[in-house]
Structures are given as structure tokens and as C-alpha cells.
Design a protein that fits this description.
By secondary structure, the chain is of the alpha+beta class. The chain is built from 13 helices and 22 strands.
Length: about 575
């Protein structure tokens, strides 16, 4: 999300300071527990006064060497990637560059006791890859639940066993149903990760097949800069992430969260980055949140991407080794999931690169990725084409939301572009409210819609970034061909927190009504929620359920069903 209110303090030029191993590896050592801090604040989803600042809590870490849990991802019908990190000693914290290489034995089995093994082998951690381990397990059966674990073979932790992981291969052939969790925008300081805990519980109950994470897995900001009503806990490192060590430390900090560990251990993830894995509003050659004294932007971007590939359960042979993360995965004849990279190849948005002219052909995807996407769509024979999309695809016009002084703060929170340029009100609906989204790349958006229509595809755009719930129809030549489903944020500040208007206030209903009137494709919007979304895909319909966290400032907050809707072929969202 490119519009936010954060404390902007001068950045320290000296980046040599690093978190100490004692601080990183300590257990609960602050005066208050997470639960105690949460008890001090009212519900973030009520109309009560704005919450008081909580006292930052400290996470209690898992014992060495498996401090950061396990994960799996990129499922194929016959393969899945499994992941872990080894911490061989207290000095080998993430980003340290130290620690002895450590051999582990991995096992994949059909049962939780790992007796019915179907694959096993050895791997070794190295400081050069921050002691992370990726294993691409092959020769598996399609559409099957498997369990896995790692065991240390040598060194002082010989015999130590990782937490148990559960994963699922992609189905093949005829597939009746897929249920995916759609998530994005997890800010460590802004709230607790209760949404991840709920995701894990549903996966273990057999209610989810996959998590699709659409970007902003971490945030690069320094402590206190962008914490909403928090911080509920503090970033490590304390300064903004710039170097490879910084990004590794930040990922390591995130992966100590028990709810996030549980969500990774419960089902496979398919992931892509947005901007905050590098720097706010980054594009091909720069970023809004990158200053000259922070060094060469390309060096920073490459360091961030290297840490991402180290810490995420992605299939490295098909992504980073070719310098890209866009890829496609098939789930039988039902749906093909195509992950797009909307950051690495994009042109600068026009507010920063000169005023937009008629026929502006700025690219979000870049020519090579666009050609790959077109080829992928042409070859696809699935009933649905799900497009993993990190920023909102559908148009966003403000209408009367800007004209009403009471709702104008909502518009301002959704835009970091137009409103700062003093565009006359009559022109607001002629220009993109947020040039960082597809609205700023309209030529390529129309080109992609025409491609989808020409090929007779039924797209499901799966979107994150904007920290609020949205659902749109996708139209070509006057006919509804698909939909866009936008999840809210796990914890990153939403419109309520950005405007300092209490969540649940009626002004959000008024603003939502204005937005629906101004955007004919818009069928649902909720501006003051946190959580994730489930998409339930069958041959004829896409069911949508928005899961909402009661209070992100409270550890272990309940997660409840919010809005539900269904897009059907030939009928759209209906009434």
C-alpha cells in the first residue's frame, strides 16, 4: 500500500550497527507478556475510542537449532519444496554470516509419525545461504497430504528434530474444488499475527489446500516508523533494512512468530513479493523509500531478493537462478495459478516520471514477462486462470467520497499521488487516484483484458496491497468474464488506522457507498478490517469469504467470518 502515515525520522547513515546475538536469541525478557499488553487496549473493530499504545512484547523463541520452524511451497502434482533454517549456535543468528555448516536428514512420509516414508535424503546448511535449506522433493503422488521433518546429523545438536510439517501436492486430472487462503501485508510492529493462527487451524482441519501470499511479507521500515496503533513488538534490526544482513535479520525476526510458523507448517504456500520486501513503491530502477546515502539501489534490491529467496519456500531452480519469480502452477483441469511480478520490471509511475500523456504505454510487467504471461494463458486449458497480482487491477475512482469533507480523509488514505499534486476536483476521475496500482498503467491493463477476452479466459485476479477488502467484476466487450478478489492486510495499517477514525464508525459505510456508486465494477468494499480471504473455486463459481481478526493488538484474537459472496459464470456476483 503506497499511502500511509508513519513517523519519518532521519535515517542513520551508519548501517554498521547490528542486533546482538543476546538480544536476538533471548526469550521473554520484558516486563509484560503479549497477552498482558493486549489486555490494555480496546477492540480495534469497535467504535470505542482510539486504543492506547501497548507495551512492546518479546517473542519466546524455539530452542536451537530449529528456531525458525519449517515450511513448504510451490506444489506440483509430483513435487513440493520443503524448507527450514539451522541455527547451529547462538552466534549464528540470521545475517551473522557465521556458524558451522550443518548436515540434516530430511524425511517425507504419508503419516504424522513419519514411518511410511516416501522420500528421504540429506542436505547441508551453509552461512553463505544464511543456513537456510531448500529441498525440492520429487516423485510424489498428486493431490496427497504428506508430512515431513528434518533431523540434525552432526555437530552439537546431533539428533535434534525439527517441528513436524504438513504439506500437499497439487492435484492432477479432473479436480472438483480448490480452497485457497489469500493473504498479504503483515507488519510485525502493527499487530499480532492471529490471522496466521486461524489459517493454520483451518488447514489442519482440511478446509484449505494452499496459501497464496501476495506481497509485503515483511516491511523494511525502522522501528516505530509505520506501526499503526502499535508497536506491539519491535523490529530487528532497529534501523531500516538496506543491506543483505539487514534483510536476513528482518526475515529471521518474522519467522520467530509462532502463528506464522504454524501457518507455514500446516500447508504449502505460493508467494510473490510486492514493494516492502525491498523498499516502498519500488520500480525497476529506484524506490520512493530509497535515499542516495543508502547506496546503489540495484545493490539494495539484489540483496533484498537474495534474502527473500533464502527465507521463502520457493523452487529456486525455476525462480532466482533465472533472475525472476514469475511462474505458473497447475491444479488439474480446474485452475492454473499464474504469479506475476509487478515490481521488478515496471516503469516508474507517471507522477514521478513526468505527466501522463495520451497513449501513455508505461509497462507494469515489462515486455519479456508480458510475452511469457500471454504464452502461458494461450497454453492453459484450465477452467479458470487465477492471476496472483500484488496491486489492485480494477479502476478506482473517488466520486463523491472526495467532495464530502467527512469522507475526504478516506480518499487521502488511499492515495499518495494525485491529492499531493493539487489536481482540480473535476479531473480526479480522469486520472489514477493511486498511480502505484494498475490505474497508473492503464494501457497495459486494457491490453491484458483484451488478451483475456480474445482467448476466452475466465480470470480470477487475486490481489493484496491496499489493506482493505474489495471485490470487482472484470469486463471485456460489455460481458463479465471474471472477478478480482482483494484481501485485507494481516496487520498493516488499514484506512481506519491511517485516518485515526475508530474502526466500525459509520463514516466508513458512507464512504463505501460513495465508492460503489463511482465504480460500477465494485461489488464489495470494507475499509476498516484486518485478516485474510478464502477463495473457494469450483467449475462454475468462485466463492469468497473474508475472515476478520477481532483485534490485531491482542495476541490470540478471535477470527470470524465477515462478508461472503460468489461470482458465477454468466451471472457475476448477482444480488
Amino acid at each position: 500500500m503506497c499511502s500511509y502515515e508513519r513517523v519519518r525520522e532521519p535515517k542513520a547513515v551508519d548501517r554498521q550497527a547490528r542486533v546482538s546475538r543476546r538480544r536476538f536469541l533471548r526469550t521473554a525478557a520484558v516486563a509484560t507478556s503479549a497477552a498482558g499488553a493486549a489486555a490494555m487496549v480496546p477492540s480495534a473493530q469497535s467504535q470505542s475510542p482510539l486504543p492506547a499504545k501497548p507495551i512492546p512484547a518479546e517473542v519466546e523463541l524455539q530452542p536451537l537449532p530449529f528456531v525458525h520452524g519449517v515450511a513448504s511451497g510451490d506444489p506440483l502434482p509430483d513435487a513440493v519444496v520443503i524448507w527450514t533454517r539451522i541455527t547451529p549456535d547462538e552466534a549464528a543468528f540470521p545475517g551473522s554470516g557465521g556458524g558451522a555448516a550443518t548436515r540434516v536428514r530430511w524425511r517425507v512420509a504419508r503419516d504424522e509419525e513419519l514411518r511410511d516414508a516416501v522420500a528421504e535424503g540429506e542436505a547441508e546448511s551453509h552461512p553463505e545461504s544464511d543456513h537456510t535449506i531448500h529441498v525440492d522433493v520429487r516423485g510424489l503422488d498428486a493431490g496427497t497430504v504428506y508430512y515431513y521433518a528434518f533431523t540434525v546429523v552432526d555437530g552439537p545438536h546431533k539428533g535434534a528434530v525439527s517441528p513436524l510439517g504438513r504439506t500437499t501436492t497439487a492435484p492432477a486430472g479432473h479436480v472438483d474444488r480448490q480452497r485457497w487462503a489469500i493473504a498479504s501485508c503483515a507488519n510485525w510492529e502493527a499487530g499480532f499475527f492471529s490471522a496466521y493462527a486461524d489459517m493454520a487451524q483451518r488447514a489442519l482441519a482440511g478446509q484449505l489446500d494452499l496459501t497464496v501470499f501476495l506481497g509485503d511479507y515483511i516491511y523494511e521500515f525502522a522501528q516505530y516508523e509505520y506501526a499503526g496503533y502499535g508497536p506491539v513488538r519491535l523490529h530487528h534490526p532497529a534501523h531500516e533494512t538496506v543491506s543483505l544482513a539487514d534483510y536476513r535479520i528482518r526475515y529471521g525476526r518474522y519467522r520467530t512468530d509462532p502463528d506464522l510458523q504454524d501457518a507455514h507448517a500446516a500447508l504449502p504456500w505460493v508467494v510473490v513479493w510486492d514493494d516492502h520486501e525491498v523498499a516502498n513503491n519500488y520500480w525497476r530502477d529506484g524506490a520512493e523509500n530509497h535515499d542516495p546515502y543508502e547506496g546503489d539501489f540495484g545493490t539494495r534490491r539484489d540483496a533484498a531478493m537474495r534474502a527473500y529467496f533464502e527465507w521463502m519456500p520457493v523452487r529456486l531452480s525455476e525462480t532466482s537462478e533465472q533472475g525472476r519469480i514469475y511462474r505458473s502452477l497447475e491444479f488439474g483441469d480446474l485452475v492454473e495459478l499464474t504469479i506475476m511480478d509487478l515490481r521488478t520490471y515496471r516503469d516508474v509511475e507517471f507522477w514521478k516520471g513526468g505527466a501522463r500523456q495520451p497513449g501513455d504505454a508505461r509497462s507494469m510487467l515489462g515486455s519479456e514477462q508480458y510475452d511469457w504471461l500471454t504464452d502461458t494463458l494461450e497454453r492453459s486449458t484450465a477452467a479458470w486462470n487465477a492471476l496472483g497480482n500484488s496491486v489492485m487491477f480494477s479502476p478506482l475512482h473517488v466520486g463523491a467520497t472526495f467532495n464530502n469533507p467527512a469522507t475526504r480523509p478516506v480518499v487521502e488514505s488511499l492515495s499518495a499521488n494525485i491529492l499531493s499534486t493539487k489536481v482540480p476536483v473535476p479531473e480526479l476521475n480522469e486520472l489514477p487516484l493511486n498511480g502505484d496500482q494498475w490505474d497508473g498503467y492503464d494501457f497495459e491493463r486494457r491490453r491484458l483484458i483484451n488478451t483475456l477476452g480474445r482467448l476466452g479466459k475466465h480470470p480470477i485476479f487475486l490481489t493484496g496491497d491496499i489493506h482493505s477488502e474489495w471485490a470487482h467484476t472484470i469486463t471485456h466487450a460489455g460481458a463479465e468474464i471474471g472477478c478480482e478478489i482483494v484481501c485485507s492486510s494481516i496487520t498493516a495499517p488499514n484506512v481506519a488506522e491511517a485516518t485515526k477514525i475508530p474502526a466500525g464508525h459509520r463514516i466508513f459505510d458512507v464512504a463505501s457507498s460513495y465508492l460503489r456508486a463511482a465504480n460500477p465494477s465494485l461489488h464489495h468494499v470494507a475499509l476498516d478490517t484486518h485478516g485474510y480471504t478464502i477463495v473457494d473455486i469450483t467449475a462454475e463459481a468462485v466463492g469468497v469469504e473474508y475472515l476478520r481478526v477481532g483485534d490485531i493488538l491482542a495476541a490470540h484474537s478471535p477470527v470470524r467470518s465477515g462478508a461472503t459472496l460468489t461470482w458465477r459464470r454468466g451471472a457475476g456476483f448477482g444480488q
